[in-house]
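Exercise 7.
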Amino acid sequence: MITSNAPAGRFDVKDLIAAIASATVDDALLLNLTPAQWETLAPFLQPLALASGQVLFKQGAADRTLYFIESGNLSVHYEDKQGEVRLAIVGAGSAVGEGSFFSRTPRSATVQAGMPTRLWSLSPMRFSELTNRKPELALAVAMAAGAVVAKRLSNRRKRDAVT
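Solution. The predicted structure, written as tokens, is:
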């Protein structure tokens, strides 16, 4: 997992909740939880700040962490023989890493911050723990992340941004 050197200020899960609630992008994370459910979920999430240009993960990486974007945006691109090709910009209120989270395959693209970005990560180990302790909450998270995959697959421009 990435560790950030960027000054982030204080993280508060309420900022993530607000970003998700106000997201208007077509691949928004529809994670509609009660305040009590958010309170239960929050300890399973790890906050992370990226500086502009900082790489979150590289194409081919084996990590399966799922990331929720609180603010900023991420550039998703793959690297081919000719260099980098941008696929999509993913913004606040959405998620990245959902492809590998579900498929257990290496990352299909490189993701880096297009500007200072604040995220919350959910590692496979923490998700497994959440599944054991609060299966209904884990199901809600999985369904919301699965909906992001489905939305991106139905949108030709964002299809390859399933990471």
